[in-house]
Design brief:
Blueprint lengths: L22 H4 L15 H5 L10 H10 L2 H6 L2 H4 L5 H5 L6 H31 L4 H8 L4 H16 L12 H14 L2
Helix pairs in contact: 7-8, 7-10
The structure holds iron/sulfur cluster (2 copies).
One iron/sulfur cluster binds next to helix 2 and helix 3.
Length: 187
């Protein structure tokens, strides 16, 4: 399956490059091989899911090496990977692309959890309670289309009084004190 030559590369510089990013992958069995990728495209040509992916396996390898951490962790590529191992078996450099896909998935889940926790905490400290619609908007700022997809459900919940458009303040100051205390005493 040849890659379409018209496919677009993500814009470098949309977010900071992380020159250390690729080092995480070097810890995988045979991970050192990632450094020797020759961009031959055999992995993409062998991949049954490549057409569904926003970045082909070959591109993802290059993006990892370039330190495009945000773009890699946002990519749908590993989520379309069916772990068929065709790419790993055929790679002339012996790169375990399938294992790389698993690691990207794990990292993006952990990153998502971190973003969720940070956003949740900020809102609770600001308003003294959760503001669900604010949380949803903040978590999906980078993918406005997702927000549009959620809008029918959001509207139903709004009509049933389950979510508020504007936050209602509670004892935010007390919450901030409690949080500061927890920070001090936590190991
Ligand atoms: S098959 Fe291997 S060497 Fe070729 S582009 Fe894919 S990862 Fe790189
Ligand atoms: S293991 Fe994943 S990335 Fe590799 S060829 Fe199969 S589906 Fe594509």
């Amino acid at each position: 399956m040849a890659e379409a030559i018209t496919e677009k590369w993500p814009v470098v510089g949309q977010s900071e490059l992380d020159p250390e990013f690729h080092k995480v992958f070097l810890g995988l069995p045979g991970g050192e091989q990632l450094r020797s990728c020759i961009q031959c495209g055999t992995c993409s040509g062998s991949c049954p899911s490549a057409l569904e992916m926003d970045h082909s396996p070959r591109k993802l390898m290059a993006m990892i090496r370039a330190g495009m951490k945000d773009e890699v962790l946002r990519s749908n590529t590993p989520w379309y990977c069916s772990s068929c191992y065709s790419c790993s078996v055929r790679c002339p450099r012996g790169i375990s692309i399938t294992d790389v896909m698993y690691l990207v998935k794990t990292m993006s889940l952990l990153e998502g959890q971190k973003v969720f926790t940070k956003t949740f905490t900020r809102l609770v400290l600001k308003y003294g309670r959760m503001h669900e619609s604010g949380l949803m908007v903040r978590l999906n700022l980078r993918s406005p289309l997702k927000l549009v997809g959620y809008s029918p459900l959001g509207m139903k919940m709004f009509l049933k009084g389950k979510i508020r458009v504007f936050p209602k303040k509670a004892a935010a100051k007390d919450m901030q004190k409690l949080y500061a205390y927890a920070q001090r005493v936590s190991p």
